[in-house]
Amino acid sequence: MKALIALMAATLLQCSFIGMVMPVLPLFIDKKLHYGTAVAGAVNSLQFIVMLFSRFCAGRISDSNGPHYAMGFGAFSAAAAGIFYIFACFFTKLPSVSIVFLVAGCGLQGWAQSMLVTGAVAGGVDVTDQEKKKDVATAKGQKRKGKKPKPAQGAGSAIGWIGLCVFGGLILGAPAGTFLYQKVNFLVIGALLGVFSAILGIWCFKSSFLGRIFSQEEELEEQDQIVEKKSLSSKEVLKIVWFPGLCFGFCAVAHGLVMTYGSLLFSEHHWAPLWFSFAFFGGGLMISRVTLGYLPDVWGGEKTAILSSVLEVIGFLLIGFFPCKTCVLLGIFLLGFGFSFAFPAFALLCLSEKHAKSKGILIGVCNAVGDGIRGGGILFLGMLSTHFGFKGVFLAGGLVAVFGGVGAVMMHKRSRKQDVIKEETALL
User: Fold this and answer.
1) Do 386 and 367 meet the contact criterion of CB atoms below 8 Å apart?
2) Which helix (H) or strand (E) holds 160?
């Protein structure tokens, strides 16, 4: 699994440097350029908008040119973003020029993260699929000898581990960026992003390590039978992905609510420190991925998605009905623990051997649909705080999580019905 470790390390490091920029960019716009928090928020949100609308293109590039190419493309985009941030620092006396460079940098940063994550996830799925095929004979031999085989490490595990590196990198990068901004300045952060991303881009494109890994996998696929010669069209992708992506979005609302309103919930109750909400959510997510990351491969996507929904609903109920600090923190921990299963489970439902050459675009579009639902959920549920407080916001979030679980149950029933039809057809 050296190839997967390499992908994880690259994703963790790149997301750490991207994470360094995210908390300090609004500070730079507000304190140095004096544009105010509204402009700072608008500029910072641009990267998320670009991420949302570039998922389809990122998946297509990953499928057509290989995951390592997508990662390299993303890394060089991040390097270009770093250069724009450096230019922005040189034009602080001309705020209107500086803000243009920051807007360009944010757009490139969103594109970079979309390309990097989509390529890394698709590459991780490729690696684990190859390893799983090699381990089938070993597992059968252990079963004959009466030994219990190890939990399967397949596509679900790869998606979970790469996702852990994405979240871990962003979480680690935020305090490091804040520290550097206070001790030095934004120019140094932009330079670090530019230099490291350029090195990673060269590594992805030119280094023989990743190149050999993916070329060997492609050669193995050519020697075996190629399941799918033609990539899926946009219409076919949406037909496969829209419902799992919708259900993932319902479960992903938990992440959006905690990240957006967690500190405000603590502030409303006069609890300190405010960052505890993020720490407990992140802790639940990381513990879940480390200890039970293989669960989607063992249980299947539908059952794991149902578990994700149930844990989130319990977490939301604890936050809404038991407004003491201990219960709220336990609820937030359960939200993180449950959310960690959501994307690996629903993304796994989009993948199949029939569409083996389109895994990048399927994963990317599933993520994009989920991001759209999550963003809309944050906006509309946040409006409830005016009349019902943040207690009402989180209780409504529990109802949304129920919809995700109901969707998973529907997919599970449909899957069982299809299995029964296949068995009856085989008997005939």
Assistant:
1) no
2) helix 155-183
Helix (H) or strand (E) run with residue 391 in it = helix 385-427
Residue 316, number of CB atoms within 10 A of its CB: 28
Helix then strand count (H, E) for the chain reads 15, 0
Q: How many angstroms separate the CA atoms of 305 and 418, rounded?
A: 19
Beta strands in 216-329 (DSSP E): none
Cβ contacts of 222 within 8 Å, gap of 6 or more = none
Q: For 136-145, 214-223, 250-259, 301-310, which range has the lowest pLDDT when averaged over its residues?
A: 214-223
Q: Which of 394, 122, 392, 402 is nearest to 281 (CA)?
A: 394
Confidence band of 77 (pLDDT split at 50, 70, 90): very high
pTM: 0.78
Of 82, 159, 110, 176, give the one whose Cα is nearest residue 363.
Answer: 159
Residue 54, token pair as written in the block: 């570039």
Average pLDDT over residues 88-93: 91
Q: How far apart are the C-alpha atoms of 366 and 240, rounded to whole Å?
A: 9
Contacts for 55 with CB less than 8 Å, ≥ 6 apart: 114, 118, 364, 365, 367, 368, 371
Question: Tokens 């489970």 — which residue?
Answer: 345
What is the predicted pLDDT for the residue at 78?
94
pLDDT tens-digit readout, 241-282: 999 999 999 999 998 888 778 877 887 888 888 778 878 888
Q: Which residues of 119-145 are buried (b: 16+ CB within 10 A; e: fewer)?
A: bbbbbbbbbbbbebeebeeeeeeeeee
Residues contacting 237, CB < 8 A, separation 6+: 56, 358, 361, 362, 365
- Asked if 405 contacts 393 with a C-beta cutoff of 8 angstroms, the reply is no
Nearest to 161, CA basis, from 117, 204, 201, 200: 117
Q: Mind listing the pLDDT tens digit for each residue in 36-56?
A: 767 776 787 788 788 888 888
CA 354/CA 373 separation, integer angstroms? 28
Binning pLDDT at 50, 70 and 90, where does residue 140 land? low
Give which of 428, 247, 259, 267 is closest to 336, Cα–Cα: 259
CA neighbor of 127 nearest in space, from 204, 55, 220: 220
